[in-house]
Amino acid sequence: MKKIIPLLLILFGVGIAWGQRCLSETILKEKMENDPEVAARRIAIEANRQIPTLDSEITSREVVTIQVVVHVVYFLPIENISDAQIQSQIDVLNEDFRLQNANANIVTLPEFASKMADMEIEFQLADTDPDGQPTNGITRTHTLIPNIALKLLGNLRLICYTELGGQDAWCPDRYLNIWVGKFPVGFAGDTSFPGQDEPEEDGVRIDPYHFGRTGIALAPFNLGRTLTHEIGHYFDLQHTWGNCITDDGIEDTPWQKSPYSGCPSGWNYYSCDSRDMYVNYMDYTDDACMAMFTLEQKQRLMATLNGPRSGLLTPTNCGTVSTVEAENWFKGSLFPNPTNDQLFVELPFRNDSTYELEFFDMQGKHLGEKFNLDSGIHELDITMLGSGVYFVKITQGKHYMYKKVVVQ
Ligand SMILES: [Zn+2]
């Protein structure tokens, strides 16, 4: 439980300020503090980072194209955003990461303009799915779970699992997975730093109202730059501020005390004894007012692309996420589903051990008693459940999985 409770508290509002636009660093910190495996992976990435030199590898290399899959997971029909809104987001990425953004001219100060980087990566919606079939790079899933993007079951992010009302990842060594699903008001998105998450959850989660620059995108985060910022995290860039005590590890972003919001203009903004680069994509300014990555941010991105995210450079035919496959051990079923008052479970004979079944609500709260059952068909007592969506955790030995049940 020690691993689970702190993250639940953070994600459901105890440890975060309302209006915290991006949750990436908060979630990474919580995971590192509470999961030694995450901490070990992150420390290894830090220790092994090979920063390329500006001359040899940064300024003259081939542009890399990243294959993207966008998983739209919608509760309300309006959140089932259009193909045009999705394409508008891809267009923004290709402008911002190639320094072709129309607002680049807002960076007028020479000391910053000379640091502006063409990151030399581009993005395209995948044209081949994990099974080798043609695709438009978009999946669409209707969910019964409102605000699914921040919902957890134990440590699992529901939006990342088909079985839990979301959509399974495509192999993250080949695709950048982007889940577009509703966050509670005040939050825009979060991203897996390299090494942070298991493959099932490795990617970006983002609110449909802060995605792209057309459709339902809402001002002032309606120009697609939430995702530019989040993909910065995906390649291991940190926020540009840090209380004048910590820093983002990047030399050419000035030390900065706190994030900027709104749309500052002019250059009379100082903290930590230096002028602040509030136009950096890794700050919190409005979409219209952020315009650049720096050359040393590019170096770090390159190090990530050649290191923990190198799978994106040489895509192999990796189809499914391995641990999801491992969960397919369960061949039984729950029925009828949706149900009114009766629920049966079929538990196939696998080995001599019994099954254990437990119910959870959408907030991850355990309901009722555990059922210990032998193989066969059993009726489950669900009188403690009102109408709603529930999860049944089915365990046998060291294997477990969750099944979603709808009670009407
Ligand atoms: Zn962020």
Return residue spans where pLDDT drops below 50 for at least 5 consecutive residues.
1-19, 322-326
**Content-based structural category:** alpha/beta
CATH superfamily of the largest domain: Collagenase (Catalytic Domain)
Order of helices and strands: HHHHEHHEEEEEEEHEEHHEEEEEEE
Oligomer: single chain
The domain count comes to 2
Major sheet summary line = 6 strands, mixed
Q: Taking Cα atoms only, what radius of gyration do you get, to the nearest Å?
A: 23 Å
Tell me which ligands are bound: zinc ion
Helix content: 10-25%
- How much of the sequence lies in strands comes to 15-25%
Strand tally is: 17
**What gap, in angstroms, lies between the N and C termini?**
31 Å
Question: Brief description of this entry?
Answer:
The chain has 9 helices and 17 strands.
